[in-house]
Amino acid sequence: MPGALDSERVKVGTRLRELGWILPRPPTPLGMYLEVNEVGSLLFLSGTLPTKDGKLLFVGWLGESLSVDQGREAARLAALNALALAQEHLGDLDRVKRAVKLTVLMVTTEQFVEHASAGDGASNLFAQLLGLEIVTELS
């Protein structure tokens, strides 16, 4: 909750275990970029894709070869991979206080209009984990 005492905040690692979620192995970059960068008290994650064992699990365009449900599943997997990277870097997800910004990128046809529904795969995961008021900016 905004303004809540630190002791009252959601403990991400604890909540993850309560939900029974098991994180995948942290992914490795598929290109020349740094996936995790800690600056002060902020942790920036970049290029987190819906991969498993180094392979993209969802390939194609939403609205063409991929359905909204597949887009939602891809966004959720990318979010789980992001959490796995954060845990690997921080050692303990209970250090996470909030998600400052969540960006979900997708490849779609011009006719596709269900971006929010597909992106909810990630935003719903973080809402379950952190609480709705803790995810402060979605784009």
Q: How many beta-strand segments?
A: 4
Q: Which runs of at least 5 residues are low in confidence (pLDDT < 50)?
A: 1-7
Overall morphology:
globular
Number of domain units: 1
Give me the CATH architecture, please.
Answer: 2-Layer Sandwich
The largest sheet, given as strand count, sense and whether it forms a barrel, is: 2 strands, antiparallel
Strand order of the largest sheet: 1-2
Structural class: alpha+beta
CATH class: Alpha Beta
Radius of gyration of CA atoms, rounded to a whole number? 15 Å
What is the CATH H-level superfamily? RutC-like
What sequence of helices (H) and strands (E) makes up the elements?
HEEEEHH
> How helix-rich are the residues, as a percent range?
25-40%
Write the CATH fold name.
60s Ribosomal Protein L30, Chain: A
End-to-end C-alpha gap: 21 Å
Give the overall pLDDT as a whole number: 88
Number of helices: 3
DSSP strand (E) fraction?
A: 5-15%
